[in-house]
Amino acid sequence: MVRNVLQATDPRGEAILRRKSSKVRRFDEALERMVGDMVETMQASHGVGLAGPQVGALKRVIVAQLPSEKEEDEQDGPPQPRPVLALCNPEIHWQSEERELGEEGCLSLAGWYGQVPRAHAVKVRYQDLKGRRRKIHAEGFLARILQHEVDHLQGTLFTDRVEDLTTLVRLTQEGEEPISLEEVPAGSRDS
Q: Which domains does the chain have, with CATH numbers?
């Protein structure tokens, strides 16, 4: 089931998005249904990641999926789907010193984009949907996605990480337009 994605520009949405999420303790069918809904919602919204708080579930759960790519020898075929990652109770326990500045957007700030510095590589400990402990090492775009989604579990928005808020833009039918400081969620302006 596709769920509504809370918007940080709505005071009710921001109030939930700014809260810290609770640890997942029950690895059951309800968790699997929630994760299934999150995956459907992420894909229907053309996103690459989604965290529980974004759909109103204050649980430490994220899903991620890199965009599809065509293989070089299958240029005429459909894009090849990438696996979906579902991480419960993820914790970044290592990040590279190397940082990269890259454009980020967010389903909870629809149409907004900004330049965010992130670690090039991370190691994340998490539990799978059965509660088994796992680890993942990610670099590049996947590392960026994981850092962004783990931030959501702490009540942090990508705008909190933007070093120069004047670089925030909104995509419209006419193109890009700057976002005024008054529009930026309060926590981002306080950082």
A: 11-67+83-190 (3.90.45.10)
